[in-house]
């Protein structure tokens, strides 16, 4: 939601997609997500720039090994910096910019699994990845479908990130929302 308020043109595009595909007669539901590729891209691009677990989960190799040319003795604590990989200019064009369109190729020919890893990667990848991605997308889609959103007048959105194992905003988001007509239609 913070990224959407920072980029109103993205919010508008996501709202148009929802209005066109779902309409005003019913609420967005889980099976609809397949028909909402732009909304999915918004979530993927948010996970790229702001991965929930920026260092994934610490792992330790069970035997001596080489990783990326470095000798790593067994039992070493290995951290994968997904945050840095997600912002590596060798992997992404203009990596600091929030551009959901760049995620159009997820699942396509480009090997996203090796560079977009908000749920980790390989054998120990998050088993709840599909569920987690769907829940976040459905929650965001519902907020967009049901409310008009805008910044609190006169307030700049502070994007400073917290430190720690999980990433959240230092300064919680404050935003204004107004119910859209669909709310009156469905609730009354
Ligand atoms: C947006 C939601 C979620 C995010 C961002 C997320 C992220 C992650 C990450 C980064 C890891 C570590 C992967 C690695 O070390 O390479 C992980 C592991 C794990 N996640 Fe999730 N997760 C989410 C939702 C869920 C849900 C809904 C479940 C269960 C229903 C779940 C269950 C697990 C379990 C059991 C592991 C440990 C896997 C292992 O070590 O083999 N996660 N998750």
TrEMBL record:
It comes from the Eukaryota. GO terms for cellular component: membrane. It is found in: Membrane. Heme binds at residue 126. Gene3D superfamilies: Cytochrome P450 (1.10.630.10). PROSITE patterns: CYTOCHROME_P450 (PS00086). It is a single-pass membrane protein. It holds the Pfam family p450. It comes from Brassica oleracea var. oleracea. Its cofactor is heme. Keywords: Heme, Iron, Membrane, Metal-binding, Monooxygenase, Oxidoreductase, Transmembrane, Transmembrane helix. The keyword Heme applies. GO terms for molecular function: heme binding; iron ion binding; monooxygenase activity; oxidoreductase activity, acting on paired donors, with incorporation or reduction of molecular oxygen. Its main location: membrane. This is Cytochrome P450. Belongs to the cytochrome P450 family. PANTHER family: CYTOCHROME P450 82C3-RELATED, CYTOCHROME P450, FAMILY 81, SUBFAMILY D, POLYPEPTIDE 5.
């Amino acid at each position: 939601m913070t990224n959407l308020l920072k980029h109103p043109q993205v919010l508008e595009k996501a709202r148009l997609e929802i209005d066109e595909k779902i309409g005003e007669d019913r609420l967005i539901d889980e099976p609809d997500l397949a028909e909402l590729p732009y909304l999915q891209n918004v979530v993927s691009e948010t996970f790229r720039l702001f991965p929930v677990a920026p260092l994934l989960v610490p792992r330790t190799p069970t035997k001596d090994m080489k990783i990326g040319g470095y000798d790593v003795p067994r039992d070493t604590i290995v951290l994968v910096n997904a945050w840095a990989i997600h912002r590596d200019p060798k992997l992404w064009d203009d990596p600091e910019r929030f551009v959901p369109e760049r995620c159009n190729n997820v699942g396509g020919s480009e090997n996203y699994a090796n560079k977009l890893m908000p749920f980790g990667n390989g054998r120990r990848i998050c088993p709840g990845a599909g569920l987690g991605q769907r829940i976040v997308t459905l929650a965001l889609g519902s907020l967009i479908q049901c409310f008009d959103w805008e910044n609190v007048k006169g307030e700049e959105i502070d994007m400073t990130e917290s430190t720690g194992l999980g990433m959240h905003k230092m300064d919680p988001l404050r935003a204004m929302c107004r119910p859209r007509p669909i709310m009156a239609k469905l609730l009354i």
